[in-house]
Amino acid sequence: MELRSNTEPVQDGANSEGSTLQLVPYVAVHMRIEIDWMIHCKKLEQRLNISQICSSKEEIIERVGNIVGLKTPTVVYLAVADSLLEDSSILNGWKEGLLPLEKKKLGVDGIYKKYPYLIQSAIDYEVCLRADVFVGNSFSTFSSLIALERTQKMIKMGVTSSCGMHVRWPSYAYNILGESKGLEAG
């Protein structure tokens, strides 16, 4: 099965070799649970006297699973700096029907690791940008830039409201809890 976002144009449903592509929608999650981020966000929460910056792996998994209207099965691309993780079990604990993938499972880890960190980030950025649904952290510049570009793409298409259930390219912040333990659109 070939994975593609349904937001990418496909000519007559076929690729250059003439085979039909099956469009598989996916969610991209910018999962900020790396060691460096957790140290930074805990200090920032203390300094600002708030508790909505850091999210544990379990909180992120639960909140992504609570996105209203998310059809399953759905592939979940995990944009995370694997080398900075304390916990390697990011593929465990996802709601039934959510199929988490990270670079090792996709088989692109060898290619990905050949590039410097900034190029790796650019690859994750593009994958997140093209996702049918994006979930990030509202205090992350990376996540905010993706949400901004996705919003600009909607505006260019003539969308006048980015709120509601049937928005193309929705973006959510997993660290801002919305109604019914769901995520807040960002």
Automatic annotation (TrEMBL):
<dbReference type="GO" id="GO:0009875">
    <property type="term" value="P:pollen-pistil interaction"/>
</dbReference>
<dbReference type="GO" id="GO:0016757">
    <property type="term" value="F:glycosyltransferase activity"/>
</dbReference>
<keyword id="KW-0328">Glycosyltransferase</keyword>
<dbReference type="InterPro" id="IPR044982">
    <property type="entry name" value="AtOFT1-like"/>
</dbReference>
<keyword id="KW-0119">Carbohydrate metabolism</keyword>
<keyword id="KW-0294">Fucose metabolism</keyword>
<dbReference type="GO" id="GO:0006004">
    <property type="term" value="P:fucose metabolic process"/>
</dbReference>
<dbReference type="InterPro" id="IPR019378">
    <property type="entry name" value="GDP-Fuc_O-FucTrfase"/>
</dbReference>
<protein>
    <recommendedName>
        <fullName>O-fucosyltransferase family protein</fullName>
    </recommendedName>
</protein>
<keyword id="KW-0808">Transferase</keyword>
<comment type="similarity">
    <text>Belongs to the glycosyltransferase GT106 family.</text>
</comment>
<dbReference type="Pfam" id="PF10250">
    <property type="entry name" value="O-FucT"/>
</dbReference>
